[in-house]
Amino acid sequence: MNVAEHQAHPEHQASSQREVDFLAIVADEASASVINNLILDQHISHAQARVGTFNETIALIEKMEHPPRQLIVDVSDSAMPLSDLTRLAQVCDPSVAVIAIGKQNDVGLFRNLLRIGVQDYVVKPLTADLLRRSLTANEPVMQVRMGKVLGLAGARGGVGVTTIGVALARRLAGERRRVVYLDLNLHGGSACSQLDLPSNNGLIELLEFDARPEPQSVERMLVSKGGRLAILSGEHPYGSEVPIRTGAVAEIIDTLKRHFHYVLVDVPARAGRLTDEALHAANHVYLVADRSVHGAHECARLVRFVQELPGERSVSVLLNNPLEPVAGRVSASDFGDAFGRLVACELPYDPKALAFAENLGEPVNRGRQHSGFRGAIDALVREMTGAQHTAKTTQPWYASLLKKPGRSA
User: Fold this and answer.
1) DSSP state, 320?
2) With 0-12 CB in 10 A as exposed, 13-18 as middle and 19+ as buried, what is 95?
3) Which residues contact 290 (CB under 8 A, 6 or more apart)?
4) Which residue among 31, 182, 373, 388 is least packed, with the fewest CB closer than 10 Å?
5) Could you check whether 22-136 and 148-385 share the same CATH topology?
């Protein structure tokens, strides 16, 4: 049964108008038939199965705004299945449960696949019983994949932490990654404004929970910007403090990184336990400084603080130019001498592009001439993801899965 026939089945007519929760793309008709029979037998909703290649699977997942919750992939024809599934992991967000099927009955391969986050590996020929056991297995035998947590903090106020963070979030989402922006400025940060979104005060509600919030509670508090970018923020009244339970920030970040490729955390530099927990949870910390003596001094203090935190994380310095360059500022070369290889890049003074983007809630450089700031952000994102763009000249078979309800291709 092909995709069109499956969607025409009465039990699955609604599925064609909604996101696919269960998706299987396999190399042969016999495997596809077994999976389709299981879908019908188990009444699995919003499910599709069909024949296709592994590369087509990756291309489809890259283009889907909302990936399936369960994904079956076929590595039967792969010369390097571990390498191919690692490529898939780069485009699948951590919440996707991946089951691989193949021909090799190899214990070493099975263990390596579990190590990179594959839920199970099933050896062909497929049977309904084998597949059913794999889909319903509850034991956490695999290593759970996690998204990357990027902390951004300013050496001083007004250096452009949120501007840089929002630009990075937009670009990462544009690279087909699922991204969440966690704005820890509890009395109202500017991230929502820059994304042209309202704040629902969801972060404050989560921080006031007496115990660790359930993943469903965290998900309800997110405000979405399209299918791949979301924000979690709060606007607590001025003059009052948020009662933050010890470990609450770390728990929220831990939940988010299980469902997003990237968690960008906008960290106030001097917010006590909130700052400590956020930086401690980060895989990589970006410290933003301007070309001032005070900025350099405070940046050095922050570098030492982050490096002395328990655990392992990398640190980079972003040298931003939020003010017009004038004589007397610390030179970029002096900054480089002071921080060495920690300086990841310098972002140029680019007032027109940034003012337009921030005030209208649009991406930097949208519909305008190339901006130096956008170029620096692009370079940072390429370094983070290694993303490469390939042009497609023909419409692939999976194009129908990407259609929006009521729209034609």
Assistant:
1) E
2) middle
3) 155, 156, 158, 159, 160, 319, 320, 321, 322, 323
4) 388
5) yes
CA distance 280 to 334: 29
Q: What residue type is 360 in one-letter code?
A: L
Task: Tell me the Ramachandran region of residue 158: left when phi exceeds 0, alpha when psi lies from -120 to 50, beta otherwise.
Answer: left
- The highest-level CATH class for domain 22-136 is alpha beta
Q: What are phi and psi of 224, to 5 degrees?
A: -95, 140
For 322-357, the pLDDT digits (tens) are: 988 888 889 989 988 889 889 999 999 998 889 888
Domain residue spans in the chain?
A: 22-136, 148-385
Q: What is the spatial distance between Cα 282 and Cα 289, in angstroms, rounded to a whole number?
A: 19
What is the DSSP code (8-state) at residue 104?
-
Distance CA 132, CA 178 (A): 29
Q: Would you say 72 and 27 are in contact if contact means Cβ atoms under 8 Å apart?
A: no
Q: Say which residues have a Cβ less than 8 Å from residue 363's Cβ, sequence separation at least 6.
A: 167, 170, 357
pLDDT tens digits for 152-175? 999 999 999 999 999 999 999 988
Tokens of 69: 């919750």
